[in-house]
Specification:
It contains ten helices and 16 strands. With 370 residues, it is an alpha/beta fold. The chain has two domains: 248 residues, Aminopeptidase (3-Layer(aba) Sandwich), CATH 3.40.630; 116 residues, Alpha-Beta Plaits (2-Layer Sandwich). The two termini are 29 Å apart.
């Protein structure tokens, strides 16, 4: 199986999200004629990152087909028992960092692109971006710079071949309460209410917890309720000094039916009841995605899935993908090899038997997109 050999090679590249992805991008670009490739250099701090576009102009451009995959992985950890950059095949599994998330998807994208020998009926573009795991620098560049209309977009993230038609939106909000520092021996209940930044933050977190309870009642189709969590907190300088600053970060997952502005306003209202001077900063926003099951992309994909994979699993994903960036171009589906539950895990692996089949699915999409 050629996909398996290619996946082994892709795993050998150390493309952890805090490093440059130039070696893996150069390798992928080297598989295609230079005239079909466009590499864009980006910067994130002192690290140089690279986006790659591989284009196949079609007879028409009114219904372009786009395949998307990211070249970076999460950082490895000390919990790995295997060499994360040396692929190992055990039975139906291939182990290695990024094997599931998402170098298996990259391998299927590349093999699909290499199979195009004649001019397709519609434009086909393969997007390989940087930094998806740590800020979406590459995805944001593509979304800002590239112009597509009426597109069909396939994000080749791990879905075990299921058609993931939707995802929640993702939001991260930084909150900072301020107060006044002085020796803790001189405080009181009233002074803590007024000056103790940690106590303000604690009261705010309790109030936000009441909001979380109400979210449990919300529903939208296949989606679980929206969620909200405090994922990071920092405050205080010493065990005997009243803290004059405390900050924490809220992670909020939105249903496609929820409006971002209303959610922010709701959170802001809760926080300002604790202290009107609270500082609130939006750190990240990723839009939700929901593919209409009456759309041409869904109908084509479900037919192909039944023919090739002998199943049509229709699901939504609990995580966020760049479908939330790229659905501005048209309909967006998350569909790829690999097991989502193995993503970001030590001794990550990907089932082998789906690799060749997913490549065939992608080829069929191109052939049917007339």
């Amino acid at each position: 199986m050629i996909e398996l050999s290619l996946l082994k090679k892709l795993i050998s590249f150390d493309s952890q999200s805090f490093k440059t992805n130039k070696p893996i991008v150069d390798f992928i670009a080297g598989l295609f004629p230079a005239k079909q490739c466009r590499i864009t250099e980006l910067k994130k701090g002192s690290v140089k990152l690279y986006n790659l576009e591989v284009r196949f102009p079609g007879e028409k451009s009114n219904k372009p087909l786009i395949f998307s995959g990211h070249t970076d992985t999460v950082p490895t950890s000390s919990r790995w028992k295997k060499n994360p950059f040396q692929a190992q095949v055990v039975g139906n599994r291939i182990y290695g960092l990024g094997s599931t998330d998402m170098k298996a998807g990259l391998a299927c994208m590349i093999m699909t692109a290499l199979s195009i020998k004649e001019k397709p009926a519609q434009d086909v573009t393969f997007l390989f971006d940087a930094d998806e795991e740590a800020g979406c620098t590459g995805g944001k560049d593509f979304a800002k710079r590239l112009k597509f209309k009426n597109a069909k977009v396939v994000v080749c993230e791990p879905t075990d071949g299921d058609l993931k038609i939707g995802q929640k939106g993702g939001m991260e909000i930084a909150v900072t309460f301020t107060g006044k520092s002085f020796h803790s021996s001189r405080t009181s209940y009233e002074k803590n209410l007024k000056f103790n930044a940690i106590q303000k933050a604690c009261r705010a977190i309790v109030a936000l917890g009441e909001l979380e309870k109400r979210l449990e009642k919300k529903r939208c189709g296949l989606f679980a309720p929206p969620t909200q969590a405090i994922c990071k907190i920092k405050g205080g300088t010493a065990g005997n000094v009243i803290p004059d600053e405390c900050s924490f970060e809220i992670n909020r997952r939105l249903l496609p039916t929820e409006q971002k502005q209303q959610v922010v306003a709701q959170i802001t209202k809760v926080l300002k009841t604790i202290d009107p001077a609270v500082k609130i900063q939006e750190m990240f926003w990723g839009a939700p995605n929901l593919l209409d099951q009456k759309s041409e992309l869904f109908k084509m994909s479900s037919r192909i899935s039944q023919e090739v994979l002998r199943k049509v699993g229709i699901k939504v994903t609990s995580g966020w993908t760049q479908a939330g960036l790229f659905n501005k171009w048209g309909d967006c589906l998350i569909w790829g090899p690999g097991l989502l539950e193995m993503a970001h895990q030590a001794d990550e692996y990907c089932p082998i038997d789906l690799l060749e089949k997913m490549t065939k699915c992608y080829k069929e999409l191109i052939a049917g997109n007339g």
